[in-house]
Amino acid sequence: MTLPLNYKPTEKEPYMNERQLEYFRQKLMKWREDLQKESVETLHHMQEETLNEPDVNDRASTETDRSLELRTRDRERKLIVKINQALERIDNGTYGFCEETGVPIGIARLIARPIATLCLEAQEIHERLEKTHREE
């Protein structure tokens, strides 16, 4: 399906209609593609980078930068898994609906976070429970 130029889903349309699903599919696939490109660029950069820094401080700084970059890439790898799961939900017809309550997650929330699996209310409850368990 080809979407009209500058199409944005709205609350006025039927929820998770074909156009909305295609919009989110394209958004997720573009996001995944961008993350994968960044990952490849990082790999090339790290392969080209030499660790033969003569100065101990320079070497430590390079190692710190490398460690930070690897942590970032690990987070992005996990994000790609979530993007793939969201694409699967589009394919199986469950995208856009809360995993816990089955109610619509909402267009605005999905535009802001297309990998969302919980409606705002369920997410807030989840976060409150997490906070309570961390404080114990």
Characterize the structure shown.
The protein is mainly α. It folds into 2 domains: 13-95, Four Helix Bundle (Hemerythrin (Met), subunit A) (Up-down Bundle); 96-136, no CATH class. It is 66% helix and 0% strand. The chain has 4 helices and no strands. It has helices spanning 18-48, 56-92, 107-112, 120-135.
Task: Give the topology, please.
Elements: H1 18-48, H2 56-92, H3 107-112, H4 120-135
Number of structural units classed as domains:
2
C-alpha geometry: flat
Q: Over the alpha carbons, how many angstroms does the gyration radius reach?
A: 20 Å
Please name the CATH architecture of the largest domain. Answer: Up-down Bundle
Distance between the termini: 51 Å
Find the structural class using helix and strand composition: mainly alpha
CATH superfamily of the largest domain: DksA, coiled-coil domain
Q: How large is the count of helical segments?
A: 4
Mean pLDDT across all amino acids:
89
Which CATH top level class of the largest domain fits? Mainly Alpha
Q: Give the SSE order as H and E letters.
A: HHHH
Let me know the number of strands. 0
Beta-strand proportion: under 5%
Tell me briefly what this model is.
This protein is an all-alpha fold and 136 residues long.
